[in-house]
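Troubleshooting log. The previous structure file for this entry was overwritten by mistake, so regenerating from the original sequence record. Sequence copied from the archived sheet and checked twice against the printout by T.R.
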Amino acid sequence: MWSKVLKPLRAITRVCISDRPGLGSSPARIGVKTTDAGTHAAELRALLTTVGEKGPFILIGHSYAGLIVRAFAAQAPTEVAGMLLLDACWPGIHRDYLPSYKGPWHEGGTTVDMGASERADAGGPDLGSTPLIVLVAGDPAKATSQGDKAWFAHQEEAARLSRNGSLRFATRSGHVIQRDQPSKVISAVRDLVAAARAQG
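Regenerated output below.
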């Protein structure tokens, strides 16, 4: 789902992309059958260290991975230069969204502990003045269902995680914005890179 943005993003900055255990080209997790966003964040940090990538990083989290990048920031705030939340889930989505989101959540042959994922995000986290863009699929002016209204409200709340946060919309996109309106993602990353460099 990232094929339309990888080449343009690589023209802006160095890009690293990974498959979590049991997804894409990565083998399934061995032994443990339950995981959470905090574990995934720690594994991402370990992966970046193992391959010699030095932060701070601009993190992109789409859907469930929004919880992972938030957990990453909670674990290692100095390693985050910017964040793009891409139609992302929020801590507590399993409690305060649609009944179908209550779980259990499954991924790559494991069950995702959403309660532990919520705790891993440490109440936000507070990103201070770290550049943040929340890019949301759809048009809030056309939201009629309670589910749609709740989704947009939580995205607006997420944009307040940083004093340097902004909320944007991809009004012609479904959930996978990077496929439906890739230019929106490319523009957001370009702006985050510029803001991070300006902060030094």
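Strands lie at 34-35, 57-62, 80-86, 105-107, 110-112, 132-137, 165-170. Archived copy saved in two places this time.
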